Amino acid sequence: MPKPTQKQTIYDIAQQIGTSPSTVSAALNGTWKARRIKAETAERIIALAGQMGYSVNLQARGLRTARSGLVGLILPEHNNRFFSDLSQSFTLEARARGQIPVIIATQRDPKAEMQTVQDLLAYSIDALFVAGAAGPQQISAFCQAAELPHVFIDQPCPGASSVITDNEDGARRLTRAIIETLQPAIAPPRDRIYLIGGDGRLHVSSRRIAGFRAEIEAHFGQCDDAQVIACGYAPEMALASIRALYDQLGGLPAGIFANSINVFEALLRFLVELPEAELQSVSMGCFDYDPYGELLRVPVHMIRQRHRQLVRTAYELMDQPPEHPELVTVKPELYPAPARAARVPAQ
Amino acid sequence: MPKPTQKQTIYDIAQQIGTSPSTVSAALNGTWKARRIKAETAERIIALAGQMGYSVNLQARGLRTARSGLVGLILPEHNNRFFSDLSQSFTLEARARGQIPVIIATQRDPKAEMQTVQDLLAYSIDALFVAGAAGPQQISAFCQAAELPHVFIDQPCPGASSVITDNEDGARRLTRAIIETLQPAIAPPRDRIYLIGGDGRLHVSSRRIAGFRAEIEAHFGQCDDAQVIACGYAPEMALASIRALYDQLGGLPAGIFANSINVFEALLRFLVELPEAELQSVSMGCFDYDPYGELLRVPVHMIRQRHRQLVRTAYELMDQPPEHPELVTVKPELYPAPARAARVPAQ
DNA sequence: GGGGCTTGTGCAATCGATTGTGCAATCAGC
DNA sequence: GCTGATTGCACAATCGATTGCACAAGCCCC
């Protein structure tokens, strides 16, 4: 039980033992062998330090070594399943390496992002990970100028190493799952699968859309442009889109591919008002994961990004920086919906 | 656009301007008036610093001032709605004060908690907030010894200031809401409301249970001990409990009070397998919030802790430490279930 | 017994800021 | 023109560690 009554320094310890501060320093930070300190001396120092409740002043060390043991992670928000999963994995990974994770949410505000990067740099953080920033290029340019190692996660940034989910692969698998659970005998015009949400101009969305189209074409020979409703990520837009689609088709389509959890939530807001029987006729998939998805009365396939793997890979890119910036992809995980058979039918 | 080509120091600036480092320091950290630096000199320095892309070395400043601008928040995990809400609020509050929030998840592991506290202390953090720690007393003792200001959030710790949700009040309001949406004409033994989950030995649970009982007694004259099933927070236990209750009663009870989101999830796992009609007969409440709660086919009342308020209050306790440790409560928010009338009945 | 090697440790500079104190130069007042 | 206050700034110590280098003592070997 350490009792750090008052700040202890290596000078205090040195005095107690009757040795010099440099010897104490070496003994405590593990370089004593290299400095040829006698094992017994080192042990005595370490023992005393322990019972005095000494702990290094990391600011002093950091000042001298120009490092800090802090690693940063910038993300848009905390209260989001994916980002909190990412925070979790990042924390575990950083702690395992003896680093202190500093996770900062910047609300997708480029100004806040830059301010944060600068602040973190002022603390001499050792590395920076960036997930879902609004202004990636600016961040990357800044880090490069400051020679701060950095890697983007879940977001490709030109000129910097990035590790992202294989969105195309995920979209294909999700689409396939939706196809496999299509209810038989649904008449036109309700017999098709629609992708809702996302923004075709963004890298992430475009890959997902490509995957969706590819899989639809592979199974049905073609994919009508109308089947891709990239209305953005705003819930209101998604809600409006599904409503319009419902009216246009005279009911729900045979399948729905929700392009993100927000979109899915919006859809759900609409679906939950419908009679159960109607619900049961649709085959759904969501490109994102939430445990509640498994607890709905509608079966939903979900794609979950491998957050742990993303973080690990990002760290690897950091540890052994490639010659040129690299874009690494990680395949996501499919959480297939519980089989319909297991559910008690309505009524 | 700052371009920090290479690390700049106040010495570099001093040389460029032809002044001393101390003057530069004063000009840049705002103490120049107190040090009677000419306004023009200060401006010149500030301008040059800006165009050189200078930024203070916070480790150096921290070493000198024995502060750091870092504030810690310890919590059990990131991927939990409440804690991520808390992280969010904490980040905003800290950033607004010009501090860097350092949020660390310690998995409810007392060892990891202590290790983290020590690490943070080694960085000379200015303050520590603790939410949901497994070993609060140990943490508090350590902080006291190190004279580190600290406040507990959502968890009372003897001997330290704490700000927690008014669990009794929340439980009463939640219970009242459940009572108000009870379906008419449910025959015994299924006509009662049950609280499921939690641990009566914990402060938080005991207050909730007290609130539940009080409100039940106020409405029904008495509360049977059997109506409180404090089976812990483990999902498996909750699942087993609801199953046993279902078997015992020959159906669902009239009302269910889920004592936490985990418990609620477990219940849902059971409920989702039941026919819709049965579901519609139960009035539910959950002491925790998740947006998905609003999207279920079962109406659910939810209690949400005011995370923003908790953080603000905690900061106030930190800013103006009371003579003796104080326990402040914050009333939570009730998210009533959408009215049943708005829902299309099954079939 | 002298030269060279190894062993164990101390000295002092250094990282980049902050801050108490000292001291010219200027100014005001008589 | 002299005194005392004010203005504007520089000096140097300091925070607590790390680290290059020097150096004494002991040892080996011829």
What is this structure, in a nutshell?
2 copies of one chain form a homodimer. Chain A is built from 13 helices and 12 strands.
Oligomer: homodimer
Beta-sheet strand percentage of chain A? 5-15%
CATH homology superfamily of the largest domain in chain A: Response regulator
| Main beta-sheet annotation of chain A | 6 strands, parallel
- Any idea of the CATH class of the largest domain in chain A? Alpha Beta
Distance between the first and last residues' Cα of chain A: 62 Å
Largest interface: A-B, 65 and 64 residues
The share of residues in helices of chain A is 40-55%
Number of contiguous helices of chain A: 13
Give the integer mean of the pLDDT values of chain A.
93
Name some characteristics of this structure.
Peripla_BP/Lac1_sug-bd_dom (chains A, B), 434 Repressor (Amino-terminal Domain), disordered C terminus, LacI family transcriptional regulator (chains A, B), elongated, homodimer, 13 helices, 15% strand, Rossmann fold, repressor (chains A, B), transcription regulation (chains A, B), 347 residues, six-stranded mixed β-sheet, 3 domains, DNA-binding, six-stranded parallel β-sheet, alpha/beta, transcription (chains A, B)
What's the arrangement of secondary structure elements?
The structure is a homodimer of 347-residue chains.
Chain A: H1 10-17, H2 21-29, H3 39-52, H4 58-65, E1 70-75, H5 81-96, E2 100-105, H6 110-122, E3 127-131, H7 136-145, E4 150-153, E5 162-165, H8 167-180, E6 193-196, H9 203-220, E7 228-229, H10 235-249, E8 255-258, H11 261-271, H12 276-279, E9 283-286, E10 300-304, H13 307-319, E11 327-330, E12 333-335
Parallel strand pairs in A: 1-2, 1-3, 3-4, 4-5, 5-11, 6-7, 6-8, 8-9, 9-10
Antiparallel strand pairs in A: 10-12
Helix pairs in contact in A: 1-2, 2-3, 5-13, 8-9, 10-11
The structure holds a DNA duplex (30 and 30 nucleotides).
